[in-house]
Write a structure and sequence with these properties.
- By secondary structure, the chain is α/β, with parallel strands linked by helices.
- It has a single domain (42-337), classed as TIM Barrel (Alpha-Beta Barrel).
- Helices cover 40% and strands 17% of the residues.
- The chain contains 12 helices and 12 strands.
- Strands 1, 2, 3, 4, 5, 8, 9, 10, 11 and 12 form a 10-stranded mixed sheet that branches. The protein has a two-stranded antiparallel sheet with strand order 6-7.
- Helix 3 (72-84) crosses helix 4 and helix 5 (154-170) crosses helix 6 (185-195).
- It starts with a helix and ends with a helix.
């Protein structure tokens, strides 16, 4: 021991103690929590839900462990659980029993999402209900708009999206979220809502929605895979960020109350650029593929699920997202209470 002490003294000869010791603020869990720059909580999260026709349905989604398709009678219990977990809002996606070229089930007064909105309002009245506005789950071809000659037509799609948004708000939706990426759809929806007397209803626009490889599990859950081609002609090119800022600016000019970046994890730089550019709330969608990667790696023992998920969500928040749409929301509620 004496020899070690002498060696230590020799090593420290001429050593000048550091003036700044950042490790002082990392020495305990209490200290780390006290000085944390980014806070993660469920109060800023939205939980997506998939609803289907039928009774007694709770369908496993193979690529998304812990996520299900719910029939309306089963949805009632699920939304009560979501509400009790302190999650403030849900985002609804509907899978109809019948699809056609025009996606008519999307804007039926008694469509699956319209009835799901009423179910949520009845059984979990404190939850904010956000309705996804798109046609891909409702069209026989799986694209997000009207198709003619193998092309998705922009302008004829706008009327159908506007009709969908109005029908959802008439059913009780608190906010609508157009995800189709058609040009000028925010303006069309804002005008239609205002004309229908819903000028107080906000729009959360999927403003920078990229043509991403991370949507695969969602397409299984929503049964919305395109039957031909892909969506690169209307969703954004992953190489572009200036274009994202342009899309965000246009949506704001057209009346968006919130803007969104989707996906989140591979687009943290886009979230940060959008946050710096706008004064509106910024949402980010922690999409299905991001969720499924963590779940799969955790099942194989390659990652610790809780730590990995919380780290990813914290990164999304740190990048500048005010709101995170995530399938991890219920898990986070449980983890933060542990």
């Amino acid at each position: 021991m004496a020899t070690q002490s002498v060696e230590r003294q020799t090593l420290l000869q001429g050593f000048v103690p550091p003036v700044h010791r950042p490790r002082r603020l990392r020495g305990s869990a209490v200290m780390r929590e006290l000085v944390a720059e980014t806070r993660l909580d469920v109060a800023s999260m939205i939980y997506p839900l998939f609803v289907v026709e039928g009774r007694g349905v709770k369908n496993d989604i193979g690529s998304m462990p812990g996520v299900y398709q719910w029939s309306l009678d089963q949805l009632a219990g699920e939304v009560r659980e979501v509400e009790s977990a302190g999650i403030p809002a849900v985002l609804l996606f509907g899978i109809p029993s019948h699809k056609d070229e025009w996606g008519t089930e999307a804007y039926r007064r008694d469509g699956i999402v319209q009835r799901a909105i009423a179910t949520v309002k009845e059984h979990a009245p404190k939850l904010m209900v956000v309705a996804d506005v798109c046609l891909c789950e409702y069209t026989s071809h799986g694209h997000c708009g009207v198709v003619e000659g193998g092309r998705v037509l922009n302008d004829p799609t706008l009327e159908l999206l506007a009709r969908t948004a109005v029908s959802q708000v008439e059913a009780g939706a608190d906010m609508v979220a157009p995800s189709d990426m058609m040009d000028a759809r925010v303006r069309a929806i804002r005008q239609a809502l205002d004309e229908a007397g819903f000028n107080e209803t906000p729009i959360m626009a999927y403003s920078a929605k990229y043509a991403s490889a991370f949507y695969g599990p969602f397409r299984e859950a929503a049964e919305s895979a395109p039957q031909f081609g892909d969506r690169r002609a209307y969703q954004m090119d992953p190489t572009n960020v200036r274009e994202a800022l342009k899309e965000v600016e246009l949506d704001i000019q057209e009346g968006a109350d919130m803007v969104m970046v989707k996906p989140a994890l591979a687009y943290l730089d886009v979230i940060a650029r959008v946050r710096d550019a706008v004064k509106l709330p910024v949402a980010a969608y922690n999409v299905s593929g991001e969720y499924s990667m963590v779940k799969a790696a955790a099942r194989l023992g390659w990652l610790e699920e809780k730590r990995a998920a919380l780290e990813i969500l914290t990164a999304i928040k740190r990048a500048g997202a005010d709101i995170i749409i995530t399938y991890f929301a219920k898990d986070v509620a449980r983890w933060l209470d542990e």
